[in-house]
Amino acid sequence: METANVKASVVKKLLNRIAGNPIINKELKGRMRGRQGFIIIAAYLGAISFFIALIYLLFTVDGSLSDSDPSFLQTMGKIIFSTVVLLELLMLGFIGPALTSGAISSERERKTIDLLRASLLSARSIVLGKLGSASAFLLLLVFTAIPIQSLAFFLGGVGAAEIIISTLMLVVTAVFFCSLGLFFSSMAQRTLIATVLSYSSILISLLAFVFFLFSIDILSIGNYGGVTPTPFDNFMTAAAWALLSTNPFFAAIMSEVLLVESQAIYTTSNIFFANSPLTLPLPWIIYLVFYVLLTGILVSLSIYFVSRPDR
């Protein structure tokens, strides 16, 4: 009982500290009072609804929805749910850096960064305030798409594990992309430079993932030709699996496939590119751990750059 009271008090203090940050209050009020916030929400939900309607029409034209086979309806439900999650991951990558790439650099451009530093707010409060306001808006986008995801519940095929895993991935992804834009904003002197660096880093990471994916067969990673793999081979397989799992689309798709086919939630030995006896964590676990740590590093660096005097 005492432990529960201590946890409740800690959570209450944390919420009061977040709500008491003046930057979070200012940023959220300013964003929601203007048209931009509502335009982004409308465009976000409109894009997801368009693709879901397109999928529905494709199945309606060929008469597939007239089939009352429960297995088909469950498959349809999984397709809708997976499409919504993948679209959300894609759009969070576009919207997140746009919200924070000018958070600090715009203050430098307006010559107001010194006023923030001269205030009673610490560099930590400034960075966390900027990050908190942008993350709260992105989380609003994530949760506004839940009614669209609920269409899959009427058709079936979506379990509680899939909902929890996808929500965790979306939340971590939203905070990470905001911290990425904030990091470049705290480092750059101009908003344009911070924006270009933010989207360039995302594009480079996607290109590197595609290159690495095609390099797996060329380098014969995990293809041992029936020979018992050596410890080095197992290390290379585990490293390749970990690197692939840092991509949001790979992590989401492979976690869903393994969850459906192998009923695996935490670990698996069914690695698609390797014939290895290794038992490795599912991609969604690696993805969450990696991006939580990376977000912490980016936020710490942002605090350092904000506290450092401009040259």
Structure description:
The protein has one domain. The chain has 14 helices and two strands, in the order αααααααααααααββα. The mean pLDDT is 81. The protein is an all-alpha fold and 311 residues long. The N and C termini lie far apart (54 Å).
Identify the notable features of this structure and list them briefly.
globular; two-stranded antiparallel ribbon; mainly alpha; 311 residues
- Largest sheet data: 2 strands, antiparallel
Report mean pLDDT, rounded to a whole number: 81
Coarse structural class: mainly alpha
Radius of gyration: 22 Å
Element-by-element helix/strand order: HHHHHHHHHHHHHEEH
What overall geometry do the principal axes of the alpha carbons give? globular
Number of domains: 1
Strand content: under 5%
**Count of helix runs:** 14
Give helix % range.
Answer: over 70%
The number of distinct β-strands equals 2
Biggest sheet, spatial arrangement of strands: 1-2
Calculate the terminal CA-CA distance, rounded to whole Å.
Answer: 54 Å
Which blocks of ≥5 consecutive residues have pLDDT under 50?
none
List the helices and strands and how they pair.
Elements: H1 2-19, H2 22-33, H3 35-61, H4 70-100, H5 105-109, H6 113-118, H7 123-144, H8 146-149, H9 151-155, H10 160-187, H11 191-218, H12 231-245, H13 248-261, E1 267-268, E2 280-281, H14 283-307
Antiparallel strand pairs: 1-2
Helix pairs in contact: 2-7, 3-4, 4-7, 4-10, 4-11, 4-13, 7-10, 7-14, 10-11, 10-13, 10-14, 12-14, 13-14
